[in-house]
Amino acid sequence: MSAEPERERLNRSGWAVLAAAAVLLLLSAANLVYRATLPTDGWAVDTSGGPIGNWVYAINLVGAESGLLVGDELASVDGRSVRDTATTAHVEPPPGWLAGNQVTMTVVRAGQTLDVRVPVVHWTPTALWRYNTRPLARVFDLLSNLLFLALAWFTFWRRPATPSAQALLFLGTAIGASAISGLLPDGLSVQFSAIAFALTYFFSYAIWGIVLGPSLLAFSLLFPRPKRAIQRRPLLGLTPALLSVLVFVAVVLLRQAIWGWFATLSMVLATIISFVHSGFTQRDAVSRAQLRWAIGGFVLGLALFLLVFPLAFRLITEPILVALLSGLSSLGFGVIGVGFAVAILRYRLYDIDIIIRKTLQYTVVTGLLALVYFGSVVLLQAIFGSLTGEQSPVVIVISTLLIAALFTPLRRRVQDGIDRRFFRQKYDAQQVLAAFAERLKNAPARDETDLDALLAELERVVGETLQPEGVGVWLKRP
Fold first, then answer.
1. CA-to-CA distance for 105 and 189, rounded, in angstroms?
2. Model's pTM, two decimal places?
3. Where exactly are the transmembrane stretches of this chain (predicted)?
4. Is 176:169 a contact under the CB 8 Å cutoff?
5. Which of 303, 32, 396 is nearest to 178 (CA)?
6. pLDDT, tens digit, for every residue of 12-38?
7. Cis peptide before 135, with omega less than 30 degrees from 0?
8. Burial of 429 (0-12, 13-18, 19+ CB in 10 A)
9. Closest listed residue to residue 207, CA positions, set 236, 184, 173, 240
10. For the purposes of burial, counting CB atoms within 10 Å of the CB of 398, is it exposed (0-12), middle (13-18) or buried (19 or more)?
11. What's the pLDDT tens digit per position in 326-365?
């Protein structure tokens, strides 16, 4: 008897999800290749006033001689207005928008309206390298997204018939497709091409509400196993797909982008509620360990994303802290992907308990030791100051020795307290095993013993106390 699940085979739903995910990735890659051939001004751009604003020039990636300066806000190109349309509307290009030509751009610079001459060029490999490696947070963001994509496909390869693995594949593919689309800057090269604009609008913006949000919600409804309502009425499992269609109509056909962001936020909140519900309804040890990995990764990933808010509101402006928080916030998707993948594959599933225990243990110990250290420094300095009238370095030495002496006994006491409070089954493992041995001793005669029930009970006790990756029982023939 083994707890390791057998290798699964693709079913119909698995083939459908695989085909849709492959099409999504291929379309994103094709869009990237097509955009690389389009004429461009060679600059990376931001937007002013949100997506319904104007292009603001940030970095000259190609390096061609240009009348543009960093911070210029674009108004028109050869008399063709592009005001208040950034990322929201396709604009027909002026006749001179061809590589090798020059165009006249009207820009707003320091409150003044100016006309500048700008060459039209093609993207170069050097420009793309500069765009994707500066700042360093962009590298972390790209690697984190591609890690999620790789984990989603690997998990699906190992569990192709598992509904939650199918949802994870679509979720990871949506994140990966958006990352691929973002390898090239947005801007006039996209806005002046109807095909590039439509595909980039979908992969860089609309995909969040149309694919990513519904896939995340579907994962929470199907993990670690489909909810009872879906098991009784399988058609309820199509609810995320229906939401995807509604968001597509609102965002793509009706051009109501605000509804896309509202729908995405609503589905994230629904995902949190679904995870909480699963935490209360899933009772077996394996499912609860899976949920700890999935919920832990999801919560930690969201916490990393939230680090960007102090930067967005300019609450933190120190360059080192800005770079650090930007890098950490870009790791959110990678952390979520690791948590989801481990939960589905059940790889070292019960290690999450060790991680949680050690994190709690050393966090509490560090906090207590810090309080003791600073408290002893303040107290001893006050005593030495009253006796000698000056500060003494001996106080630092005494406080350090005190911390060294307290570390081991304090760590043991904290660990015992955490185990008693949060990991009671592990703390009482010896009592559980002793009770099982007593049960065997008082069992009926061998010919009256229910062997299947005995093996099931043995597997349960060993799983709860030792929490191994697998449980096997070998019976010797008499």
1. 14
2. 0.73
3. 136-156, 168-184, 190-223, 235-254, 260-281, 293-313, 319-347, 359-380, 392-410
4. no
5. 32
6. 889 999 999 999 999 999 999 999 999
7. yes
8. middle
9. 173
10. middle
11. 888 888 999 999 989 888 887 665 555 566 666 666 677 7
